[in-house]
Design a protein that fits this description.
homodimer; alpha/beta; 7-stranded parallel sheet; 7 strands
Chain lengths: 337, 337
């Protein structure tokens, strides 16, 4: 794969990003998402350079099942934020979709107004695979956006999969959008996700839905009361909003700002970020080690057959693991004792 | 560390275990729990030999917060099972405690009656550290117990930590004991644990507690209804029991046997075990790789300082991970491309 555009130097990237140049920022994100070895080297350098200028933001995870109205919600909240003259970056993750002009256009059009606002930057994250994966790339894209002066970062996920846990590991505040439906309120949402939420928002609280939303709000409140409180002392509020009647948005933003203020005061805000950094370092170490292992010819050659033996109960799991590791070591993982 | 007792050979272990000799079984478990390299080699051989005789059991995870009455419950259910002439092995995990004569005696006395029953075998798992860790050792202990003819295996955990997820990954049926308390019912229990439960049992449903237990039962039922159904079609029932008035125990056991019957019929029982085997193989691979890495002199020498840099935001997490891995590779993790 060749770059059609002129390849930017480290300086081009760093200066462009720090100057808040959207085009360069976009290309910098493409760089960190790239699997090409040359790109990876360059992206490490760029990230290390911009790192001192990153971090000065509030990172919001926004999730909810399809149909809950994430884009509309982000449009409304995004406009509320940009009207205050603040710079907002929106990163969307869709694990199911590969990067494609289509999905990018798709996301742009999904947030029509916001995407044209000078203070807003919208970027769909590619669903990558390689070292660090899209999740790590997303985390690095956040750093780039912050270095480009974006004070508020949204990370949007679909809210039905593993990705939430990962996003929760890279944001300050995790917002769960819920739909007031008849019957089971949590359908589709894994219980674990509720546990991570710093706030629940019931969308489409208007017209005929209004009553239902109020009832859902009460149900969630009592459901949350069944759960143990957070050590930070923060109790996740349940809110309602309507993009249609543009109600509730301001209240939601006030909650986010209150959270930041309280957690900063208590020191949880910074310590949480520190822990997230360390978590990611060890996570990346694990991924690097495993990719070395599983991409090794000997391993990839034997793995399938070993899995069959283990699955069929012919070989003990740990024994199989040891044997594979030994073959791997003998072929170039020699350890000095 | 020297063995005071005569060291058993592979044949001694295999024959003793298959003969159902409790003393040998106990020593075999000590063997798989041992961190000594020589013991580990022997234990791999023993496990591989007995593997064909393992698996023919139902594996029960039993958990609940301290004070919920796990031991008393296990006594009652255990007696119900042994009275049916079935062999029961109880493995208890206490992540907090190191193996010690004390804790072993402690657990023995905790289940006075059961521990003296000829058909029962009670064994506290040591809280180990090394490769595979106590969790993997526990899983291997299960195989040994099965090879020794135990048809029902209990794995007891404290129900407040990580261990539950691990235990859930090695059992067929996960039983969550709950206490009917005033106010927040889930205090101390992480929400994730409820999600794993195949059945909820409210203990001490007697005397003054009876009404409260009934109310708690209703609350849990509605709480569970908020959650999405399992793909297996199994809906976790909420039951009550009293060890004091010995009520509810038979009903609980009927639920377990119904679960086994249904899941066997649907094929979920076996496929779940297969997935668990594969999960453990990859889990063990990960642990082996990480222990190689973190125990490496170069890594252990640099890690602390790197963690400080990353925590302080001076170095990017992925960059730090790469640097550590490179140092590790250059010092003996050379990979053939």
């Amino acid at each position: 794969m060749r770059h059609r555009k002129k390849r930017l130097s480290k300086e081009d990237f760093v200066q462009g990003v720090l100057a808040g140049n959207k085009t360069v920022l976009g290309r910098a994100i493409t760089l960190v998402e790239s699997d090409l070895v040359e790109d990876q080297h360059l992206s490490r350098e760029v990230l290390q350079e911009i790192l001192p200028y990153s971090g000065n933001s509030i990172r919001l995870g926004i999730t909810g099942v399809p149909g809950v109205g994430k884009s509309t919600f982000i449009e409304s909240l995004g406009q509320h934020i940009t009207e205050k003259g603040k710079k907002l970056a929106v990163l969307t993750i869709d694990p199911s979709s590969q990067r494609s002009k289509g999905s990018i256009l798709g996301d742009k059009t999904r947030m029509e107004t916001l995407s044209h606002h000078p203070l807003a930057f919208i970027r769909p994250s590619a669903s990558g695979s390689s070292l660090g994966g899209v999740n790590n790339h997303t985390r690095e894209s956040v750093l780039l956006c912050e270095a480009a002066g974006y004070e508020i970062i949204f990370i949007e996920t679909v809210g039905v999969g593993q990705s939430e846990t990962t996003v929760h590991g890279m944001v300050d505040f995790f917002l769960l959008l819920m739909l007031a439906g008849a019957g089971d309120e949590l359908q589709g949402i894994k219980k674990g996700i509720m546990e991570m939420a710093d706030a629940l928002v019931i969308t489409k609280s208007d017209g005929n839905n209004f009553k239902m939303a109020k009832r859902a709000k009460a149900e969630y409140k009592s459901a949350l009361h069944l759960f143990p409180p957070s050590p930070t002392g923060w109790f996740p509020p349940v809110l309602t909003c309507s993009a249609l009647e543009s109600t509730g948005i301001q209240e939601i933003w006030e909650v986010v700002e209150k959270y930041k203020k309280d957690m900063k005061a208590k020191g949880y805000f910074d310590s949480k970020r520190q822990q997230q950094q360390l978590f990611w370092m060890h996570e990346n170490i694990r991924e690097l080690l495993e990719s070395r292992f599983y991409q090794h010819p000997i391993v990839s050659k034997r793995l399938g057959e070993v899995e069959n033996e283990v699955g069929a109960g012919k070989k003990e799991a740990f024994t199989a693991a040891q044997e594979l590791l030994q073959a791997f070591e003998e072929d170039g993982f020699s350890q000095k004792k």
